[in-house]
Amino acid sequence: MKILILSKKDLFALNIIRCLSKTRMECHVFGQGKMWSIILSKYCHKYVDCNFGTLQEPNDSVIDRINDYCLKHKISFVIAGDYETSYFFSRIKNKLSFGINAFPCSEPEKLRMLENKWEFSLLLEDLKLPYPRTVLVENTQQLSAVKMEFPRLVKPLCCEGGNVFDYIKHDQKAYLEIAQSKPVFPLIVQEFIPGIDVDLSILAHQGKIVAWSMQKWINRYTLQFFVSDELLELGRRIVSATNYEGVAHFDLRLDERDNSFKLIECNPRFWNSLRASWRNGVNFAELGLLLAAGENVVEQNISKNIQYIIPGMVFSELKKRNISILNKIPRATYVDLAQMLLDPLSFLCSLISRRL
Question: What is the DSSP string of 79-132?
Answer without folding.
Answer: EE-SHHHHHHHHHHGGGSPTTPEEPP---HHHHHHHHSHHHHHHHHHHHT----
